[in-house]
Amino acid sequence: MTRWTVGSLGVHRVVDVDVALPSEAAVPAWCVPHFAPSGEEVRIAFSAFVITGAGRPIVVDPWLANDGPRHQPDAEATVTRLLDALATAGAPSDEVGVVVNTHLDGIGWNTRPGADEGWVPTFPRARYLWPAANLAVEVDDDRLVPLRDADVLEEVGLPYEVAPGVTLTDAPGHVQGHSVVWVRSGDESACLSGHLFVSPLQVADPSFALDDDPATATETRQRLLTDLAESEGLLLSPLLGGPGGGRVRPDGSGWRLLPDQA
Questions:
Q1: Which DSSP helix (H) or strand (E) runs through 145?
Q2: According to the model, what pLDDT value does residue 42 have?
Q3: Are 255 and 229 in contact (CB under 8 A)?
Q4: Which one of 90, 135, 204, 215 counts the least CB within 10 Å of its CB?
Q5: Cα–Cα distance measured from residue 233 to residue 34, given in angstroms and rounded to the nearest whole number
């Protein structure tokens, strides 16, 4: 678990899996060893964020895109282990007030096995927020049925204030309706970037595209990196391996990250 302090707010990152994969391109030297074990590999992680200090705990992107474990015999044990880690981070599952999804990319552990054979919301007292523009292209996705049946899914327009200091904002390009979560308190800020940054290569070169709309995603990444470098803010990603993010600094024609954690 990694924790950052953003003014009076806390941001915790709870990782399920962190593995090294062969890189599609040369890995910049600044990535080693924190974000990559070598110049030929990069680390990828599946994680969830918890924001504390803004009322009831807020969970962001609960292990999205890692749906494989949901279909394994030990699915119940896996989600129980992850929820125990969230509780340690200050977010017991029955105390979470809001679950924010930056977009739909798998369902992750937004739902869990129920007492019967079906699936139920993982966080029983939470509102589940999703960008309306994203669900406009995923409206019939059956993975959302347990949330719709429980009447906890809310489609929201952007920008949307989740809680004081926590805002869901438009960040287009990766997929239609993709968003990011900004955490701001005092003079400090952090951007929880959804899947805009799935590799440190996209920090080094924002045009390194793994997106539905590469040109728009490149522009969005460039804007976010510029803003964060100027404001001394944190870039935090659920998919970057190692520390999961850091402070943005210029690096030639691109950018680099300096790990920064409490």
A1: helix 145-149
A2: 96
A3: yes
A4: 215
A5: 19
